[in-house]
Amino acid sequence: MRFGVGMLLIDAPHSALNMLGIDERLPDRNVMRVKKFRRGKNQYVYVSPQAWRFWWRETLSEIFGWQLSPLFREEKQVFTSADPVRYPDDDVFGYMRAFKKGNKNITVTRTSPLKNTPLISVYPDRSSVTQDDGYASRQEGDPVPYSSEFYSTILKGSFSLDLDSLGRFVIIDKAGYKNILNEKEDEIPKEIKEDYEIMKNAIASMKNAIVDDKVWLLPPCIRRSRASQTVKALKYIFGGAKLTEYLTDVTPKFIILAMFEGGINPFISNIIYEEKGEIVLDEDAIIERIKEYKDILDPKKIFIGRDPGFMKEWDKKIQKIKSTLTEYEIDIKITTVGTAIDGFAQEIEKYYDPQGECDDKSNH
Q1: Which of 117, 133, 155, 174 has a CA that sits 20 to 30 A from residue 94's CA?
Q2: CA angle 163, 165, 167 (to 5 degrees)
Q3: What is the C-alpha separation between 98 and 74, in angstroms, rounded?
């Protein structure tokens, strides 16, 4: 199985991108807190993985025109349509939906082809978090005090995109694999059967699609478009809490991208870290990890993108990565972040369309 993987850094110089709210465990209950977690003796601020995915999904809708799957609320749960044929976000981001037939629950689930970490601060909170005390004073009477936390840090995140699962939907009665209901099943309500008949007819009408009793497979050109645009969205990604007061550009300022045969992402941990107040790029760790997994690196390319104004002191380290790995016949593409993302997206497109038969108007 082929996976497109990456690691990126976001420069958050004055930010409060994901809030916890009031922490009832602390004596000071008038402060709006940012989200944090503890590792060893230190705490680190973070953006939750679901918040990052929300930004990602909204960017795909805004920039690439994706029609997002509508939401349905039943009691205390919220579901999407669970229609990955019509809605590309159901395909890429996965879903779970339960249907009721009398006292019986019928569930479809799809494990997301796109997996991601939280966005985690490289700096611990003792050196990154500030409490801002303010006053609401436009009204008559005494000013009303309020406080909130914000931070200045570098956020690190990683992701993995399963290229073989994207656009492939399974009908196996196993958790995570029953992506589609069999419309012939007697226990399915009539209206649900009709929905799945429409879905099946839609994919069956597509040229080069595959539909059988176990697997539905979207045409290569649609899979190519969905995968490529998912990656390209990182160039334009936007979102975050409290942007009115702490406006932040959340597009990556540094990124490493590659494709592997297998689900590993060797860039997740300990290649970028804080040491004595400085952010360190461990070029030797990167070199050794790529050498370790070069047999499953396919194609033999690594894309490294850096914004020209970000971490200029890393230039020599990045050049060392290139010169060392070139000796192992690995092509290291060093460029800007946007160009690296575009180049990586082109490699993904080749995976689905090696003959270059798809055009740019392929429906996503």
Answers
A1: 155
A2: 90
A3: 10
Pairing of strands 331-335, 301-306: parallel
- CA within 13 Å, CB half, 351: 27
* Residues 6 or more apart in contact with residue 99 via CB below 8 angstroms: 105, 106, 107, 108, 181, 188, 189, 192
Handedness of CA 168, 348, 92, 263 (dihedral sign): positive
Over residues 53-110, the pLDDT tens digits come to 999 999 999 999 999 999 887 777 788 889 999 999 999 999 998 876 666 777 889 9
Instruction: Dihedral sign for Cα 358, 87, 171, 110, please.
Output: positive
Residues 303 and 348: their CA atoms lie apart, in Å, by 13
- Cα–Cα distance measured from residue 137 to residue 254, given in angstroms and rounded to the nearest whole number: 41
Structure tokens at 275: 């040491």
Instruction: Report pTM.
Output: 0.92
Q: What are the tens digits of pLDDT across the range 194-241?
A: 778 888 899 999 999 999 888 999 999 999 999 999 999 999 999 999
Q: Please give the DSSP secondary-structure letter assigned to residue 219.
A: -
